[in-house]
């Protein structure tokens, strides 16, 4: 059963395409998507996707400057009184995509600096799914300790490690191999990326090249 409401946080780590592809799939699936983008996340979207400001239409795969879909709701990161900050706001899970080491540290230690961190803390205390798509390499000992702390607190640590056994041909298809796992952990039905069925991909399996 497809969840009706998902929260997506975007922080300042490299990997804007993961956020764009996740929001695109959620909106296309009809999921009510609540978005919170940090100031560094906005800069990330500019640097990596060429967005001027927070372009909600472009973020969900539409034409830049176009209308925002009705099922995409944006929240200001400084609005700590927003609905996402309360456990009484019911939703089906949250993903931080990408999740910077700074946001990882704040979430793992309960140090909420803005709405994204507070929304993640709410997920943990309410025992809702929280997926952290950490994007950093190599990992310092600080990162490793924070990843373990986040896991112990109840989060799913899902590093942005794309897979290649489906033979993706475009950057979007590569990113979707990660986004598909995020959607799985949020309980969202999708066809973002082919699932491994034990056979090598061929041209008639999701448009993948022949062996």
TrEMBL record:
Coiled coil: none annotated. Residues 191-211 are annotated as: Disordered. Flavin prenyltransferase that catalyzes the synthesis of the prenylated FMN cofactor (prenyl-FMN) for 4-hydroxy-3-polyprenylbenzoic acid decarboxylase UbiD. The prenyltransferase is metal-independent and links a dimethylallyl moiety from dimethylallyl monophosphate (DMAP) to the flavin N5 and C6 atoms of FMN. Signal peptide: none annotated. It is an enzyme of class 2 (transferase). Keywords: Flavoprotein, FMN, Lyase, Prenyltransferase, Transferase. It catalyses: dimethylallyl phosphate + FMNH2 = prenylated FMNH2 + phosphate. FMN binds at residues 12-14, 38, 100-103, 135. GO terms for molecular function: flavin prenyltransferase activity; lyase activity. Belongs to the UbiX/PAD1 family. The keyword Transport does not apply. Its EC number is 2.5.1.129. This is Flavin prenyltransferase UbiX.
């Amino acid at each position: 059963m497809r969840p009706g409401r998902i929260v997506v946080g975007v922080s300042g780590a490299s990997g804007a395409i993961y956020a764009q592809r996740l929001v695109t799939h959620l909106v296309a699936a009809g999921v009510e998507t609540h978005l919170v983008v940090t100031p560094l996340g906005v800069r990330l979207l500019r640097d990596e996707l060429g967005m001027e400001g927070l372009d909600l239409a472009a973020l969900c795969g539409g034409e830049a400057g176009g209308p925002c879909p009705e099922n995409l709701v944006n929240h200001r990161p400084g609005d700590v009184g927003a609905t996402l900050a309360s456990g009484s706001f019911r939703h089906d899970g949250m993903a931080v995509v990408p999740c910077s080491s700074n946001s990882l540290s704040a979430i793992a230690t309960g140090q909420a600096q803005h709405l994204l961190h507070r929304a993640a803390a709410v997920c943990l205390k309410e025992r809702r799914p929280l997926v952290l798509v950490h994007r950093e390499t190599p990992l310092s000992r600080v990162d490793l300790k924070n990843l373990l702390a986040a896991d112990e607190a109840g989060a799913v640590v899902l590093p942005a490690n794309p897979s290649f056994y489906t033979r993706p041909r475009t950057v979007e298809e590569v990113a979707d191999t990660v986004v598909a796992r995020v959607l799985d952990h949020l309980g969202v039905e999708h066809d973002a990326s082919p699932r491994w069925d034990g056979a090598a991909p061929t041209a008639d399996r999701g448009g993948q090249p022949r062996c």
